[in-house]
Amino acid sequence: MESLFFWISKLAWAVIAPDMLLLWLFIIALLFLWWRRLSRWQAWGKRLLILYLLLIITITLIPIGELLLSPLERRFPINPQLPAQLDGIIVLSGAENGKATALWDQVILGEANERLHHFQLPAREHPQAKLVFSGGTGSLTEQRYKGSSVARRQLKELGFPVERVIFEGDSRNTVESILRLKALLHPEIHEQWLVITTAWHMPRTIGIFCNAAWPVIPFPVDYQTLPESIAIAPDFAGHLQDLNIAAKEWLGLLAYYLSGRSAALFPKSQAC
After folding, report:
1. What is the radius of gyration, based on Cα positions, of the chain?
2. Residue 270 pLDDT more than 60?
3. Entry pTM
4. Residue 214 has what DSSP assignment?
C-alpha cells in the first residue's frame, strides 16, 4: 500500500507542480494558436497566452511561495527548550545527494544541510540518547543511492562518532521513515524523543508521528522565510522555487490527512 502511495504521489507531482503547470499552459496555448481550422481555438489560445503572461508577471513580483511557507514555518517554536533527559534524537534526511556523492566520490549536499548541523549539538549534549538518521532516497528509478550513506560519510569526515548513530536507509518518504523507525526502535510512550527536520516540513512530520501514537519534540531548522515582513521584489526563479516547495507541502498535508497517514490537516503538538 505504501509503495502504491509513493508511486502515485511522485507521478502526480511530476504533472501538477506549479512549474510544470506553467509549461502545460504555454504548450496548450501554442497548440490552440496553431490550430488554424477553427478560429475559436485560436481565440482560446490567445486567452491562455495572456493568462500565462499574467501568471509569469505575478510570480515574478509577488512572493506567493513565501506567503504560503510562512505559516508552515511558524507552526512550531524555533529553538525549543529541551528537557534535561532525552531518550532519542531523530534527524530526517533531506540534503544528501546520494547519486552525485557516489559518482564524484565526495560528499555533495543540496539544501537542508542544517538538519545534520543542528543534530550534532544535542547529540553531543545528551550522550545517553539514541541517535537516529532516517532516509534512503525518494527517487523512482535510482534506489541504490541512499541519503543515509551520504550522512554517514559526512558525519565521519566531520569527526562525529558514527558508531553512536542508527542509520535507516530504506525509507522513501516521511511516512515510511516514521513507520520503519517505530518498528525498529519500539519507543515507549513516556520517552522523550527529539525530531529534527526543515521548518516547513515539520507540521506534516508531526502529524505522521502523532498518527503513529509516537509523541515527539519538534526542532524545526532550515528556514526559507525571514521572521520579518515579506518583501515584494522581482525574482521569478526564486519565487517559483518557493512556490513549488509550498505547493508540494500543502498538497502533502492534504493527501496525508485524507489518506489517514496524518493525525490532522494542519498538525501541531497538541494533535497527539
Report:
1. 21
2. no
3. 0.91
4. -
